[in-house]
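Record type: monomer structure entry
Structure origin: computed from sequence
Chain ID: A
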Amino acid sequence: MTDNNFTEGRISGKLLKFMIPILGALVLQAMYGAVDVLIVGQFGTTAGISAVSTGSSIVNLVIFTVTGLAMGITVLIGVYLGQKKEKRIGKVIGGAICFFAVVSVVLAVLMLVFARPLVMLMQAPEEAVDLTITYVRICGGGMIFVIAYNVISSVFRGLGNSKLPLIFVAIACVVNIFGDLFFVAVLKMNVAGAALATIMAQAVSVALSLIIIRKQQLPFTISREDICFNPEIRNFVRVGAPIALQEILTELSFLALCAFINRLGLEASSGYGVANKIVAFVMLVPGSLMQSISSFVAQNVGAGKEKRARQTMLCGMAIGAGIGVFIGLAAFLRGDLLAAFFSSDAAVIARAFEYLKGFALEAVVTSIMFSYIGYYNGHGQTLFVMLQGLAQTFIVRLPMSYFMSIQPEATLTQIGLAAPAATIFGIIINTIYFRYYTSRKMRRE
């Protein structure tokens, strides 16, 4: 457990060592959607690209909501480890199994029944409507596997083990690539093949992960009696629910953004779909930082080491912003080359590059903001995380995106600028709250 103890040792070294496998896992997760778009773009149709883009936006709403809820498991396990209360971890996991089993069934039914109304609400281009509905329904039918993967990964991140989630998603990614090639390139199933490959990959990953877990030496035990609706559910839902609500509303804002862009036509919709897959890669460093800092801070909060928790946040900001400069420049200067990986259509590539020019600054500023969020998540201050996220979305990102989209000569660059503008607004809010929160804690100490 020495490597998984974040309360001692050099912060930057341990943070990077923990973060790199998380980053690797997120890279592979991003490849899910990227491979779908890439193979549909090469062997399917332009309408197929739009369908995967719009459909994956709807599916991501569900996935990010579950990930937000599961963050409560990560934080709670980290705190119990810091407090040396390993016996309570088994009950946390047992409760999570029951809770998320119910959640997966409910979400699957909703996606199957309401696929068409959701797609129509998204204003998908007429040529892509039926394809998008197919994508959403197939992914909805396999939602239990998607949720199981996210819950398993959240448990191990809470334990300070980021390597096993990397192995799990690597397995899924390989299966997804071969599945896409078989269903889309060989069987010519277009969007349906991409969705089937994604769900099949998640199912294989979950099955193999359970086999791997049984051979691990874990710092806790779990019995059949632990697998029930117990009080620990309330504890991790209390932490995770605000994050999940924020994710729901934030993803709804991205669905609205997708709808704004869909109104500009099939080329704009497909170009944004391609750009969105590149954006997923751009956001990997901030995302891995946030998850790593949340786990790091949770253990130190449990151990009563507040100064070390603050130092972890600042260290994360420096690492993320430094890397973000290079990623942002690549997106701004050569986004067309990146887009060409996903489509051979010159018009689609041009529209994707157009969006990336406006979005590029986000690679730097989001690392700063997500470091703040990791710090607050680790303290269980998820209500504030939700409120600041909603402020960014509904005060800046959505109004600015809509305003830019209705201009007579609207460009995707103008719409893309809404993301970094909202994040800079968020950094200001987080900085003000950080000064208030830390001064209040110091007075109590």
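Annotation 1: The mean pLDDT is 85.
Annotation 2: The radius of gyration is 21 Å.
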